Amino acid sequence: STIMVLNGPNLNLLGTREPATYGYETLADVEVMCREAALSFGHEVECHQSNHEGVLIDLIHEAGRRIKEGEVLGVVFNPGAYTHTSVALHDAIKGADVPVIEVHISNVHAREAFRHHSYISPAAAGIVVGMGVQGYVLGIQGLVHKLKA
Ligand code: DQA
């Protein structure tokens, strides 16, 4: 089945955006890594990036519908800065009953205080933080293992 990989605001700038914090891999590079990781478990990925909160909410709802149809397994989600602001994304994950692995490239806990709180974490099935872009691969592995258990 399909694993949805969702990226939130500013992650389209990966590779050129604050490379000391986020590295030099582009979003396209990350999507290739995700595709290979999913394939090693016999799954496919579908990658989406949006700078718009409502679009991300719609994608979570879509994931919920497609999970019920047995077509989608779950979601690996880097919500970007919406992590720290979005009650609406928290509610979407809960409301659509979607297994979400929350991924942050950087170690948000070692950064500014405003990045220490996540509205997403209490609704997430698991969290990967501070492992660089490899975190997406770890997120896919974690999602597959969790859903097998
Ligand atoms: C991020 C961390 C967030 O605080 C930040 O707003 C991002 C990226 C990360 O992947 O480390 O956009 O989610």
TrEMBL record:
Signal peptide coordinates: none
Gene Ontology MF: a single term: 3-dehydroquinate dehydratase activity
SUPFAM superfamilies registered for this protein in UniProt: Type II 3-dehydroquinate dehydratase (SSF52304)
UniProt keyword terms in alphabetical order: Amino-acid biosynthesis, Aromatic amino acid biosynthesis, Lyase
Cross-referenced HAMAP family: AroQ
Gene that produces this protein: aroQ
Catalytic activity: 3-dehydroquinate = 3-dehydroshikimate + H2O
EC class: lyase
Family in the record: Belongs to the type-II 3-dehydroquinase family.
Binding site for substrate: 78, 84, 91, 105-106, 115
GO biological process, one term: chorismate biosynthetic process
Transition state stabilizer, annotated site positions: 17
EC numbers, comma separated: 4.2.1.10
Oligomer status and interactors: Homododecamer.
Annotated source species: Marinomonas hwangdonensis
Described function: Catalyzes a trans-dehydration via an enolate intermediate.
Protein name: 3-dehydroquinate dehydratase
CDD domains xrefs: DHQase_II
Known pathway: Metabolic intermediate biosynthesis; chorismate biosynthesis; chorismate from D-erythrose 4-phosphate and phosphoenolpyruvate: step 3/7
Record-annotated active site: 22, 104
Listed PROSITE patterns: DEHYDROQUINASE_II
